[in-house]
Amino acid sequence: MAPLDEYLMPDRDAEIALARSAAPDSIARDAGVLVLGRKGYEVSAESKNGFTCLVQRSWAATTDAPEFWNSKLRSPACFNAAGVRTFVAIVMMKTKLALDGKSKVEIARALEAAWQNRQLPEADPSAMCYMLSKQQYTDDVNKHWHPHLMFFVPRTPPTAWGANLHESPVLGFEDPEDHMTVYLIPVRQWSDGSVDHEAMAMAH
Question: In total, how many domains does the chain have?
Answer without folding.
Answer: 1
